[in-house]
Design goal:
alpha/beta, 22 helices, 3 domains, ABC transporter transmembrane region fold, 4-stranded antiparallel beta sheet, 6-stranded mixed beta sheet, 611 residues
Length: 611
């Protein structure tokens, strides 16, 4: 349970007010339970005429214990009531007091649950927020090694399991131990000899339950991992449905999913069976404990032990029996928590993930921005042992357009990803106006840049919200102006709701060229001094490419621009063209200069002209 208490220490502090109120009303409910049971004894004694003693009022300075004074005075007032009102009416009064005490107890029990609900729901909300915030802040490198479906599973299935297993058990965990402690205290007061048996037997029962619970946690972790794998299969199927159908691979993906689902079925059965064992096991162990206590207590009374009277023994057994249900609920809660801890372990794999892209302790700022970018001996590899780019030296002057060309895998996109610190260089440095980008705040660095990628990344929202994405307080006039510059205004106006039209998931209601022009409009509205274009026209037809290229030329004007080019015809006017081959710059110059070299660039041009 150490892991469980660590979870509470992490997430409960903002809700300590609710925790205090929950514990307060749980204590009140437990005390009221004891006193309501206490009323049963005089009722029984009056019915069966067990007690014939005559009582006088007793004070605390009479030399007797508080327990003896309280019990004596209770019987004194009861006898006085019998004398004044008669046995029948006194019995009715005691029964009425029992009803009132029970009403107060149930009210306190309700209030304890009432105050634990915002604590429970708040912790789950916070965990969801923490996971989402962490996902947003983690570097792109984290998601190259993790399945997207598994990450989604952790945020949905695992957080839901935490809510169902751990948070739903909070009320039982705070309420039942209090009830058990209060009842045990009263049991010690009534008979310490009998209570010794309880102290010996209950921990033994707890050890048995704990061993089963640990195995449940292991199986639950295995089950959540398998569920994450199934979510990955679903995510891959939905994303690649076109290819699956094109290659007649339906049976292949069905078999893969069915095999994974069958394994999850077996693990789920094992977990559910172990969890189902909690109630019968706790009931059996509780009954065994009651039988032993009943035997020992009966032996004390039958042996004439003056320390325990028959009425006290009845009260003792009522209290002890009232522990059994809380003990059962507690054992079920422990089982449930073990299952939830497995999910928390998977969630913590995200929450505890290290982010290597950090802000410096003393960040530097570029006060008079010019836009000169320098790659100084840059070497980087996703696996450091196998560099993707090696010893890259490149100087991009303010306002220049520098194009990177080369075969797939030569390192073009990697160089572009290093500039906004999606990854950090492993050797060398990358500077803007002489300032190493690692010495700047990540937010300030990326605020200088705009991106237009080969795949237009849009969101399931309106045209207006997609263009203003990342730009605060943009006016409609500014949005329209950006759309006109991007050659997007005409097709937006032709849509049913204009700028308020929802474009669907990833912009599925738009053509490729329209999606790309919206991306350009988004970059124009941001108005960044540095622009990164990653093969922004490579997936378009000739007509769309012409419109997009016009928009790009307007966007690139007076900006420092790094272009990754697939179609060489789009970069003829670049200030500098760098040809990459196997992670190194092998040629650089203008279009005409590179053609004159008759080298790598010339072969690339010839290959494209032959297509």
């Amino acid at each position: 349970m150490k892991d469980f208490w660590n979870i509470l220490l992490r997430f409960v502090p903002p809700y300590k007010k609710y925790l205090f109120l929950n514990i307060l009303f749980n204590v009140l409910a437990a005390v009221l339970t004891l006193f309501s049971f206490m009323l049963v004894i005089p009722i029984l004694e009056m019915l069966f005429k067990v007690r014939e003693d005559v009582y006088g009022y007793m004070t605390l300075d009479s030399g007797h214990s508080i327990k003896e004074v309280a019990m004596n005075n209770f019987y004194y007032y009861t006898q006085e009531a019998i004398t004044t009102f008669g046995p029948s009416l006194t019995l009715a009064m005691l029964a009425g007091m029992l009803v009132v005490m029970t009403a107060l107890k149930t009210g306190a029990t309700y209030l304890s649950s009432y105050f634990v609900i915002p604590l429970r729901s708040g912790i789950v909300r916070d965990i969801r927020n923490y996971v989402y915030d962490k996902i947003v802040t983690l570097p792109i490198s984290f998601f190259t090694t993790e399945r997207k479906g598994d990450v989604m599973s952790r945020m949905s299935g695992d957080v839901a399991e935490i809510e169902n297993s751990i948070m739903s058990s909070l009320d039982m965990l705070f309420k039942n131990p209090i009830m058990i402690i209060v009842c045990l205290t009263m049991m010690i007061i009534v008979s310490w000899q009998l209570t010794i048996f309880v102290f010996i037997l209950l921990p033994l029962a707890g050890m048995v339950m704990g061993r089963v619970g640990k195995r449940l946690k292991r199986k639950s972790l295995e089950g959540q991992q398998q569920w994450g794998l199934l979510m990955s299969y679903i995510e891959e199927t939905l994303g690649g449905l076109r290819i699956i159908k094109a290659f007649n691979a339906e049976e292949k993906v069905k078999t893969r999913f069915h095999d994974g689902n069958l394994r999850f079925y077996h693990i789920s059965n094992s977990v559910a069976r172990r969890q189902a064992l909690a109630h019968p096991m706790s009931e059996f162990l509780g009954t065994l404990t009651i039988a032993i206590v009943l035997w020992f207590g009966g032996s004390l009374i039958l042996g004439g032990n003056a320390s325990l009277k028959a009425s006290d023994f009845i009260y003792y057994m009522i209290i002890f029996y009232s522990i059994i249900n809380p003990a059962k609920d507690l054992s079920k809660a422990v089982y449930s928590i073990q299952k939830g801890l497995a999910s928390m372990q998977r969630v913590d794999a995200i929450l505890d993930a290290e982010n290597p892209i950090k802000d410096p302790e003393s960040p530097r700022q570029i006060k008079d921005f010019k836009g000169e970018i320098k790659y100084n001996g840059v070497t980087f590899g996703y696996d450091p042992a196998h560099p993707v780019v090696t010893d890259i030296c490149l100087d991009i002057k303010p306002g220049e357009t520098v194009a990177l060309v080369g075969q797939s895998g030569s390192g073009k996109s990697t160089l572009a990803d290093l500039l906004p610190r999606f990854y950090d260089v492993q050797h060398g440095s990358l500077t803007i106006d002489g300032v190493d980008i690692r010495d700047m705040k990540v937010h300030d660095l990326r605020d200088l840049m705009g991106n237009v990628n080969q795949e237009a990344i849009l969101f399931n929202d309106t045209v207006y919200n997609n263009i203003t994405f990342g730009v605060k307080n943009a006016t409609m006039e500014q949005v329209v102006r950006a759309a006109k510059i991007a050659n997007a205004h005409e097709f937006i106006e032709a849509m049913e709701d204009g700028y308020d039209t929802n474009i669907g998931d990833r912009g599925c209601r738009l053509s490729g060229g329209q999606r790309q022009r919206l991306s350009i409009a988004r970059a124009i509205l941001k108005n960044p001094p540095v622009l990164i274009l990653d093969e922004a026209t490579s997936a378009l037809d000739s007509e769309s490419e012409k419109l997009v290229q016009e928009a790009l030329e307007r966007l690139m004007k007076d900006r420092t621009t790094l272009v990754i080019a697939h179609r060489l015809s789009t970069i003829k006017n670049a200030s500098l063209i760098c040809v990459l081959h196997e992670g190194r710059i092998v040629e650089r110059g203008t279009h005409d200069q590179l053609l004159g070299l008759n080298g790598y660039y010339t072969r690339l041009v010839e290959m494209q002209s032959m297509k």
